[in-house]
Design goal:
Layout: H1 3-36, H2 38-43, H3 50-77, H4 84-93, H5 105-115, H6 121-149, H7 155-159, H8 164-180, H9 182-195, H10 207-235, H11 240-264, H12 273-282, H13 288-315
Helix pairs in contact: 1-5, 3-4, 3-6, 3-10, 4-13, 5-6, 6-8, 6-9, 6-10, 6-11, 8-9, 10-11, 10-13, 11-12, 12-13
Amino acid sequence: MDEHDILAIMLKQWLQRAQPFLVVVSLVLIGVLLRSQWAELQAHTWRLHAGWLGASAIFMGATWLVEVSLWRRLLVVVGGQLPFAAAWRIWFLTALVRYVPGNIWQPLSMTLYCERRGIRPEATLMSMVLYQAVTMLAVAPIAGIYLLLYNREGLLSQLLASLTPWLGAVGLIPILIFVVRPALLMNLVNWALEKVGRPALAAQLTSRTLLSLLLVGMVSWLLWGAAFATLTFALRPYQNGELLRLVGPLVAVFSVGYAVGFLSLLTPSGFGVREGAYYLLLIPLLDGATVAVAALAMRVWIIVGEVVVATVALFWKTGAEEIPVATPPYPGSGSYAQPYGVTSEPQPE
C-alpha cells in the first residue's frame, strides 16, 4: 500500500464521518444565502403567473430526467451500471452538498453511495468528471449561437460583437479536438484521477458516443434555459412581442451564466458570479431589477425543487434499490470485473 492509497483511505473515512455535518453546513449556507437577499426579494412586486410557473416546473423536471440519464450513460462508459431509480435517488440525496464551497462534495458523496452498489470509487469519480466535462463543453455551441444571433442585445455581447467569430472558434476548437480524438479527453480524466490517488481506468469513448453525449448535454441546457425563461415570464406581465423577443436570449444565457459560476470555484454553487454574468448578458435587454430578481428567483426555484425531490428520495427506498448492482466488464479488461466493495449482504444507506 503506497502513500496515495493511505491518503485515499483517510479521505474516505473522513468523508463518511463528515457527511452528516456537510449536509447541515449546506442547509445553513443555503439559509444564509437566502437571508442575505431577503430585502431584495421583499422589495420586488411579485406577480406570479401560475401557468408560467407550472411550465417552468415541468421544464426543470424534464431537465433532471435528462441529467440523470446522461450520468447513467457515462457510468456505462467507465464500467458501472445503475437502475434509473437508484441513480435518481443518489443524484438528489447528494445534490444539496453542492452548496458547500469547492464544487467537489457532490462527486465525493456519490462515490460512497455508488460503492454500496458495487461501483468502484474511481469509476464514479470518472463518470462525474466526464459529466462536468461534457456539460461544460456543451455550453460552447449555445454561447456561440447566442453571440452570433444576439450580439446587439446584451451589454457584454455588445462589447464583444467584433470578437464574435474569434470567440466562436475558441469555444468550438476543444469540442472538435475531443470529438476527433476522444482518447485525449479520457487521458485528461485519467490524469486527474491519478492526481487524487486513484488508478486510471481503461475506459473507451468513441467519437460517435461523445458526440451523442454532447447533444444530450445541449438538450439539458436548453431545457434549463426554458425553465429560466418561463420563470422570468411568471414574475411580471409581458406582451406577446416581448415574449418572442426575450425567449431566445433567456434560454441561451442560462447555460453561459451557470458555466461561469461553476468554473469560478469562488462561492457555493457560483453564488453572485452567476448572477453577475446574467446581468452582463441581459442588460439592457431587461432592466437591472428584473434580471436580479429573475436570477435570484431561479436559484431559489432550483433549491426548492432539489429540496423537495431530495426529501422524496430520502424516504423513497425499495428493496431492489438496496441490492448492490454488479458492474459489467470494464472496457479493455477482457474479463468480468469483480464489483468493488460488494458484500454478500445489502448495505443500508
